[in-house]
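Session log. Operator J.P. requested a structure for one protein chain; no other inputs attached. Running the standard single-chain path with token output.
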Amino acid sequence: SYAAVGPAAAQLDGELTTVFAELVSRIFVLAFQLAIPIAAVLLLVDVSFAILARTMPQMNVFIVGMPAKVIIGLLTVAMVLPMMASFAGSILPAIATGSTGLLRAVR
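Structure written below.
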């Protein structure tokens, strides 16, 4: 990055903010797409434990639910990880392009 933009040579203008906002929004969308399968499974687990707590009030669902959520979450990550790897491999060129555009906008 020092070869592209030397120390104290950066020029901050309107194009930089546009490129930066676009890059941040793209990263946010990608992070959301990576996290949504695990969040959906954990939401279903929470709903099932809520139903279980209403049907069996004498059972301490919090004590049973926390280890179960950890185990189910780890199993979900293990199952989704191959899909995440292929997804990450497909978005790496887009990240490289965005970073290059950001460095060009700083010049």
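Operator note: Helices lie at 14-55, 61-106.
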